[in-house]
Amino acid sequence: MDQYHQPAEEEDELTxxxxxxxxxxxxxxxxxxxxxxxxxxxxxxxxxxAIGSQCSHYNAPLVKGTLVGQRVRCPFHGACFxxxxxxxxEYPGLDSLPTYKVKVENGMVYVxxxxxxxxxxxxxxxxxxxxxxxxxxxxLIGGGPAALVCAETLRQTCYEGRIIMVTRxxxxxxxxxxxxxxxxLDRSSIxxxxxxxxxxxxxxxxxxxxxxxxxxxxxxVKMIDGTWLNYDQLLIATGCRxxxxxxxxxxxxxxx
Length: 256
Hints:
This protein folds into 2 domains: 13-117, Rieske Iron-sulfur Protein, CATH 2.102.10.10; 137-236, 3-Layer(bba) Sandwich (FAD/NAD(P)-binding domain), CATH 3.50.50.60. It is built from 4 helices and 17 strands. The protein has helices spanning 8-11, 145-156, 187-190, 195-200, and strands at 13-20, 28-34, 37-44, 47-52, 66-68, 71-73, 80-82, 88-90, 99-105, 108-114, 137-141, 162-166, 203-206, 211-215, 220-223, 228-230, 233-236. The strands form 4 sheets. Strands 1-10-9-4-3-2 form a 6-stranded antiparallel sheet. A 4-stranded antiparallel sheet has the order 5-6-7-8, with no helix packed on it. It has a 4-stranded parallel sheet with strand order 13-12-11-17. β9 and β10 (108-114) form a beta hairpin. The longest helix is centred in the middle third of the chain and has 12 residues, at 145-156. Keywords: 2Fe-2S, FAD, Flavoprotein, Iron, Iron-sulfur, Metal-binding, Oxidoreductase. It holds the Pfam family Rieske. InterPro entries: FAD-oxidoreductase/Apoptosis (IPR050446), FAD/NAD-bd_sf (IPR036188), FAD/NAD-binding_dom (IPR023753), Rieske_2Fe-2S (IPR017941), Rieske_2Fe-2S_sf (IPR036922). This is Apoptosis-inducing factor 3.
């Protein structure tokens, strides 16, 4: 092959030697640079693999996390990722990590990245959308991460029926911890997914709607406005709310 005419796939890739094969022992990981891209290199169960170096939740450096078997746990909030596939396996966080090719040759470890994906730090798992002719309906009561993860998991496992998420919040699922970290946040900065995302994957989000009763015999729920909604399967994921218990002091000797 002419050395000046490389295959298009090779032209789009960047490969660099990042370390010696003996630099990492089994169960160890380190950050390496491929071009200007930080990559997490992992040696697990006798095999090298490479994934994105930052958690898809709040961008924490995963090299400071914990590696157990084929899973690395984020040091900030405990999100877990598979070091072989990059898939997220435990919340918090919704997105998976990019993966990179690894080759061990003559005692050296090489990592290959796609030049067009150098700026990508996370990815969405492949999902299907809704087929209108399928009438089967799964109703999710609650607008938090649990309901959203359920909806996405259904689409990732090729469920093509109707998905309805009902929440009394004014917004679709959003990142509530951010509310305690800054004032005057822009609405779009706290949403877990955009409106386009829900439309693309056929996930209906009904905001400012409240379910007040469930009829499991007829498989229907009653809304606060008196309307009824039928379902085939139901998930209640409304979370919990702190209930404060007050103790009043009767005398100076009593404790509050």
